[in-house]
Automatic annotation (TrEMBL):
<protein>
    <submittedName>
        <fullName>Metallophosphoesterase</fullName>
    </submittedName>
</protein>
<dbReference type="InterPro" id="IPR004843">
    <property type="entry name" value="Calcineurin-like_PHP"/>
</dbReference>
<feature type="domain" description="GTPase-associated adaptor">
    <location>
        <begin position="362"/>
        <end position="422"/>
    </location>
</feature>
<dbReference type="Pfam" id="PF19976">
    <property type="entry name" value="GAAD"/>
</dbReference>
<dbReference type="GO" id="GO:0016787">
    <property type="term" value="F:hydrolase activity"/>
</dbReference>
<dbReference type="InterPro" id="IPR045533">
    <property type="entry name" value="GAAD"/>
</dbReference>
<dbReference type="InterPro" id="IPR051158">
    <property type="entry name" value="Metallophosphoesterase_sf"/>
</dbReference>
<feature type="domain" description="Calcineurin-like phosphoesterase">
    <location>
        <begin position="2"/>
        <end position="235"/>
    </location>
</feature>
<dbReference type="Pfam" id="PF00149">
    <property type="entry name" value="Metallophos"/>
</dbReference>
<dbReference type="InterPro" id="IPR029052">
    <property type="entry name" value="Metallo-depent_PP-like"/>
</dbReference>
Amino acid sequence: MSDIHFGQEKDGGLVFTNDDAKKRLLDDAAGEVAKLGTSASGVIVTGDIAYSAKYEEYVKAGEWLDRLAERVGCSRLDIQMVPGNHDIDRAAITPVVKFHLDSIREHGDKVLDMLLDDEGQREALYERFAAYRDFSSGYGCDLDVGGVYSADVAVTIAPGRTVRFVRLNSALICSRKDDKGTLILGARQRVFDAIDGEEMVVLVHHPLNWLQDSNEAARYFKSRARVIISGHEHFPSLDIQPVEERCDLLMLAAGATAPDDVDEKYTYKYNILRFDWDEAADALAVTINPRTWNPEMKRFERDATFLEGRSERNVLGSPYFRRGAPPVAPMQSRIDGPALMQPVANPVTGSKEADLSMSDDVRLIRLRFFRDLTEEYRRRILVELEAIPADLTDRLDHTIEQRFFTKLVAQGRLDKLSAAIEAAILEKKQGNSE
């Protein structure tokens, strides 16, 4: 799904209308997944989770995503996301930041790389993502402040056959108003490694035609990706491109889960995707169940016009599967039950290496710490646990907070950290109810 836009409503009536559609989505998703006789492996959101990138909007988004994960049978730790243009805080665009963003638009990679290589300039550039960074890092979907892609989650769909998800930040230079063709991924995101036995699924908010480096990005994607899932334009589309012999690229625009305006063209939409291994072709197969809002019955149903006569199941020419070692036992090669999302090391940055040994209990505490607490509460906990001195006046940026969190876990202080988090959450709830 994409473009959930929590906080977009300007009047109370629209709040009720959108909330009802989101409740019906929970019911519909639970019913459709149950028909498959299994549970979901995870949830994907390709940007615009919030509308103004405010903490309160992400609180509501987190509560709803928790309910969605529960209804479809996956862990709330298995939610993947990328940022969209509504996940930047426009109030954080100072004159200096605007100057840098305009310079990147004009000069491209040269200026972008210069700013990313300077720690101070880099943090200023990412300050627009402050609330999103807290929210997404709780799920382990950290923004790489070096401007590098993230490819640290994978699902094994058969022995020796893995789908790796590549998360990109197409909102990197988004400003107050962005024109089509002016955004940029940068070389550090465009260039990602392919691995034998793995096929790549790229998650990105903006379709390629919104990027000024779209031609160069498309060349890498055609060479190394098998699926691209995007959002932003609020209307779904499907395009399967034959790249070369026995090599295809599927491009899916997800549509908007909660568009700005609901009319005859734009309405509430989401998709149920199934990734599996086609044994005969040694290929990735993607089955799409497109869901759309029925305005007459006020519920979701199959989007009969979306596939335009195409089959739900699309077998994609997958050269990187074929380059991998053959499965040891072909007749028993399918994975029983839902495939599990697993943290893996990013082949370029090595990110997620700490997650490889992180238990679900620790990951859940990380989610509660970064997603459910404001910066004020997190700082207070770090002081209480003597991770930082009480008289420290410097602001802790997100990267430093993560280091202190990791240090407390490494010191075996998980129980105290968990208790402090729960106490802070309780205090916050009591304060909100007064």
